[in-house]
């Protein structure tokens, strides 16, 4: 079993820089040490400005309740990526990774941000296959994705692996891969056979609404591939020149422990306001990003996106130690929204999905009540036209009917 690795800064993928070493002890807790030369290097930055500050001392990286290791795990796979990687390894008669470090080393390094891994500082991270072109996606690939979603023992061809492997480093539940489109990396997100509604089309329509509601979104579009919709969203952690940006999820930023019995944390730290307060000391847009986060919270409440967990919010590093809130992503209505609260806290009533709750702690977003109400009414005005927007985006009448139970702009 491999219990240590070198962590690289891959902002410039073909010239990766070793940053430090990460290892696990016998009970699974982690430790990290920046390289002595790296700390003094011009342009060096802390991988996490709160939990892994730039220092020559060894630092503890406790295993979190979900078995992740903070910002390091942001660059690794989960859910779909784990399933896909397991299928690839099985096809090649290779054993499954035995711990998180082995999972990091099996990554294709297309994950979020700029972090890469190898066993030794003299060995550069394996950048894996080159992302395919959008035109390479096919009906056959869609069938393979459907089969793999249902059956993890689905046999994959070399072509399947070439097309799908870049998506194995990405987080999330939905099947996806990375494609090159108009000179930029995009994430292509596919439907699943067990979807209740046409998720790619609905995500496209929702992002159109979000953009109109004043939410910062990446470029996105909907493509028809082999008579099936595929949602494309530009990678905001990449640049037009092929460089990568450092990325920290809100989950890593807050490092939440398990919720207590009374779930008090939903009122304090495990919340939208908790994100706003944690990012403020090194967020270069300050008040603007706090207001933007509040607007996203209101949008999620109205649109019925109750899967707004901490990994679905993030920061991007603009320069060492200086961050901005990332564009919005993974915003989709959920059919259970009518009876399910938000995934993280909204206000004094915890995760309750109401504007009253949202206003209760608006000051933590540097907003006065009247300013918060202005944002709420601006978002409400856009959401009130959701059915027409969804219809114009190609969402069927059937799916609009299904979603009408969870989208509520009067909450």
SSE blueprint:
Blueprint: E1 4-9, E2 17-24, E3 30-34, H1 36-39, E4 59-61, H2 71-74, H3 80-91, H4 100-105, E5 115-118, E6 132-133, H5 139-150, H6 158-164, E7 176-181, E8 184-189, H7 199-212, E9 220-225, E10 228-234, E11 247-249, H8 250-254, H9 272-279, H10 287-303, E12 314-319, E13 322-325, H11 355-360, H12 369-383, H13 386-392, H14 397-403
Parallel strand pairs: 6-7
Antiparallel strand pairs: 1-2, 1-5, 2-3, 3-4, 7-8, 8-10, 9-10, 11-12, 12-13
Family: Belongs to the HipA Ser/Thr kinase family.
InterPro entries: HipA-like_C, HipA_Ser/Thr_kinase
Protein name: HipA domain-containing protein
- How many structural units, i.e. domains? 3
Largest sheet, strands/sense/barrel: 5 strands, antiparallel
Mean pLDDT metric = 92
The rough form would be described as globular
Structural class: alpha+beta
* Rounded Rg: 21 Å
Give the spatial strand order of the biggest sheet: 4-3-2-1-5
Order of helices and strands: EEEHEHHHEEHHEEHEEEHHHEEHHHH
List low-pLDDT spans: none
Helix content: 25-40%
Q: Kindly state the number of beta strands.
A: 13
What fraction strand?
Answer: 15-25%
Count of alpha and pi helical runs: 14
Q: N- to C-terminal separation?
A: 51 Å
Family: Belongs to the HipA Ser/Thr kinase family.
Organism: Undibacterium seohonense
Keywords: Kinase, Transferase
InterPro entries: HipA-like_C (IPR012893), HipA_Ser/Thr_kinase (IPR052028)
